[in-house]
Amino acid sequence: MHPTAVRELELDLDAFEGPFDLLLTLLLKEAIEPREVDVAAIVLAFIERLAERDEVDLESCGEFLVLISALLELKARSLFPDEAAELDALEPEEAAEELARRLAEYRRMKEAAAWLVQRLASEHDRWFRLGPAPLAPRAERRLAAQDASALAVALRGLAVLPPNVSLSHMALRFPPVSQFLERFRSLLSRRRRFDFEAEVGGFSRVEQAVAFLALLELRKSGEIALSQAAPFAPIRVSRASRSWAAPAPAGRSPAPPAPAAADEPMPSGAVQRTVPSGLDSSATPQEHEEGLEHPEPERILTWTARSA
Amino acid sequence: MDSPLRLIASNPVDRLARTVEALLVVASVPLSVGELAEAADDDHERVETALALLHERYVEGRSGIVLERVAGGYAFRASRDAADACARLFERPVERGLSQAALETLAIVAYLGPCSRPEIAGIRGVAADSAVASLVERGLIAEAGRELGPGGAVRYRTTPLFERVFGLESLAALPRLDDLGADAGELRQRLLEVASARAS
User: Fold this and answer.
1) Choosing among A80, A87, A108, A141, which should be mutated to test the B contact, i.e. which has the most B CBs within 10 A?
2) Are A113 and B103 in contact (CB under 8 A)?
3) Residue B94 belongs to some domain of the structure
């Protein structure tokens, strides 16, 4: 690219179309506003022209840089108009007019600011949620004059070891189940049957509970048979025969619950007492055979079946 | 189903009012009718009816909560009776310690916005950088694009928070500029007298 080639660089810009040389002339004659010239487009056009050549012509590149930087400076200057120079050129009347206009505008804004201050004051009792509001600083509480000795007395009162609290009432002393197992076994070795309540009547509540557990144990191992005429009626304990644990024949399975009995709600406590673990309905015929007192065998059958 | 109680409970506008009420409680900025309608999945007119219902319910003097129309939307605020109690628990970081420069800058942005820092400086005659920064930090003004043309400066406008803090329904609620600075004519006259004295 020859140096003259830079000047002949054909440009196609928004503000100008023609050789670079002509653009520069027009700019210097102020026929074109520098701010309207797209410098980047000129640089692009030059680089495209450069890319068409195989070798880089340093001389034309240097000339282009000088020209384009001068153009950039011109444009930069034109973007910052010198206001002071403009005002200097004004006649006194014009300057006064301009000053009055600016002052009036400022005064209006000052009044607007004053209005905002008034508004702020009148709206001061309007509170609303503003995102997470920072908590207002709390006023520090002032303490009244304190007497150190009073504090010492108070602390001394606190420093005393508290008395040991007795937990004796919370301890439950359980007698061993085996004790009652032995007791009932020996009882049944002497008597054929006995009344549970009558035997444990004199014991504490805990002892009675353990005694009942012993009763269940004995029933489980098949050593005894239990019966109760009605809910809350005395529990009868009797010696069991050896055939006790054998399953009942199929033909002797219990009858379905009688409709009459189904209408009567059954207290759950009574069920528990009536039906210790393992007591199934097959026991009833057994009890009949043994001739135990059973005012309402049908009823007992129903309870056991329902609770199963 | 036919009992009158059930009919009242299932009144659609009443149900919508409850929804709108709930949305307003959750919001920390005023909600426009459009936003409420979209959230409640209902149409604008019905939302406005529901708002009218709520407005009756939450009117100053009737409840500790007041429904107000502010910043182009609706929002709950505390009743004025409770202002002292509120002031003991909360502070007002947005408006606390606003300088005169910041207030003038705020007025310029409110009236002439969006406008740039050079424009503000041109009116006030001093640089507005720190005032603008302070207002941006408080959330009273925000950037709103740049000036057209090369080297376009950032322009600012006021935020909905500005309207809310100053209790304005919209910027249109600001007093007209013509009403302010009514004595500008007199100033102009004095300046012209000085100028003519110099010219002669």
Assistant:
1) A108
2) yes
3) no
